[in-house]
């Protein structure tokens, strides 16, 4: 199970922080990621972290503004979002993968319910 929190309405330039807590089988995943989706568009990979090796990859659209990190407890992944723009408005999803670790949604086995971020 993956449970996201931290979404809401923010002004442009704001810096909200999203959190994702993993439990159950998701706890043994090798990769965790954040995706986002707006109505009518495909789900977009935003950032991912290899929970074993620690490597991180960001989408070009958020590079330099968003930071993904893993808490010391290792069952929590956060997404610090800075300098938000209206185009960052989306439903943000946490995902966990067992074998692969990219930014394609097909690589992930478990998904959270999502948390809405609205930038105005």
Q: Overview of this structure, please?
A:
It is a single chain. With 120 residues, the protein is mostly beta strands. Helices cover 0% and strands 47% of the residues. It contains no helices and eleven strands. Strands 2, 4, 5, 6, 9, 10 and 11 form a seven-stranded mixed β-sheet that branches. A four-stranded antiparallel β-sheet has the order 1-3-8-7, with no helix packed on it. Strand 5 and strand 6 (56-58) form a beta hairpin.
| Total count of strands | 11
As a percent range, the share of helical residues equals under 10%
Rg estimate, integer Å? 13 Å
Shape annotation: globular
Low-pLDDT residue spans: none
Binned strand content: over 45%
SSE order, one letter for each helix or strand: EEEEEEEEEEE
Q: Count of helices?
A: 0
Based on helices, strands and strand pairing, what is the structural class?
mainly beta
Explain the layout of strands and helices.
Layout: E1 2-5, E2 8-10, E3 17-22, E4 31-37, E5 44-50, E6 56-58, E7 66-70, E8 76-81, E9 90-97, E10 110-111, E11 115-119
Parallel strand pairs: 2-11
Antiparallel strand pairs: 1-3, 3-8, 4-5, 4-9, 5-6, 7-8, 9-10, 9-11
């Amino acid at each position: 199970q993956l449970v996201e929190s931290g979404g809401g309405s923010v002004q442009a330039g704001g810096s909200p922080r999203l959190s994702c807590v993993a439990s159950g089988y998701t706890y043994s995943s090798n990769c965790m990621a954040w995706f986002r989706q707006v109505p009518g568009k495909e789900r977009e990979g935003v950032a991912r972290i290899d929970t074993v090796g620690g490597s991180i990859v960001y989408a070009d659209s958020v590079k330099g503004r968003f930071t993904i990190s893993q808490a010391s407890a290792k069952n929590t992944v956060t997404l610090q979002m800075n300098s938000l723009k209206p185009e960052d408005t989306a439903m943000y999803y946490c995902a966990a993968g067992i074998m692969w670790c990219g930014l394609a949604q097909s690589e992930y086995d478990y998904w959270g319910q999502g948390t809405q971020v609205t930038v105005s």
